[in-house]
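Researcher: We are triaging several targets before committing to wet-lab work. For this one, the compound of interest is S-adenosylmethionine. I'm pasting the protein sequence and the ligand SMILES. What I need is the predicted three-dimensional arrangement of the protein with the ligand bound, expressed as structure tokens, so it can go straight into our comparison scripts without reformatting.
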Amino acid sequence: MSGVSASAAVETDTIRSALRMAKASLRRSDTADLDAEILLAQLLDVDRAFLHAHGEYALDVAQTRAFQSMLERRAAGEPIAYIIGEKGFYDLDLLVTPAVLIPRPETELLLEEALRLTTSVPAASIADIGTGSGALAIALARQRPRCRVYATDISADALAIARQNATGHDAAVAFFGGNLAGPLIDRGIKVDLLLANLPYIASADLKTLEVGRWEPRLALDGGADGLSLIRELLCQLPSVCKPGAHVLLEIGASQGAALRQLLRDRLRADADVLPDYAGFDRIVRFAVN
Ligand SMILES: C[S@@+](CC[C@H](N)C(=O)[O-])C[C@H]1O[C@@H](n2cnc3c(N)ncnc32)[C@H](O)[C@@H]1O
């Protein structure tokens, strides 16, 4: 929603008038009404139904100013999740800051496939490589409490957020800082299931994308063809996967064929490419022998 204007003054005195002005000021966004309500509900620490039921509630000066500042950030294109500091993923509310990728709905497909693969392996060891906010690792640890869940990230700032999220959700995840699966290999840890949503956008494409303005480059930039980190991870797999371990990788919308070829060449593995709800390549699934 770049280019949205926040020019309208927000002379708020009640919830009703604040919302009316906010919706006008975000009018170039497709989601102006929803955005305005989410921001005000977060600021007042109420749910959206409260806003509709209590339109006469009077905002004080500090609340009015804080709301105006939120609207300006949103009008400049900043994602709602960074403004309010949280994002829903599966059944979790996760803290997010600009140090972590905002978890995406399509990544829930990776989680669902991981849950399916572990249904009959209740005590599996699982690794989430490039954990970011901890979304996948924490959801898995909660859904599969008998599994041992490990997670890595190269970003210390991301790991700090992931640890906070794990604590907040009482999830038992062992977090390690370092390159890809390196920290697990160094400790001799081998897993039955490895999942990774690593950066997979080609560097040149990233320059043209709105996400590149807000979300960490470290979470998005997959090198010249988008597959640099995935290639590097493939080299590590024999050292971190038990024989027959399953691997799930999130990939870009048109990377399925390239990945299948890569897996044949590097690991002699036959991969399945699973589509997302829009029909695009989204997950590569294979076994390491
Ligand atoms: C696309 S984000 C995914 C975050 C999270 N797993 C999710 O699905 O929302 C990729 C993550 O990989 C991390 N990362 C990038 N390069 C890495 C590397 N060489 N080793 C470990 N993690 C890395 C980034 O810091 C970022 O948190």
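Researcher: Any quick observations?
Model: Strands lie at 86-89, 92-95, 125-129, 148-153, 173-177, 191-196, 241-250, 272-275, 281-288.
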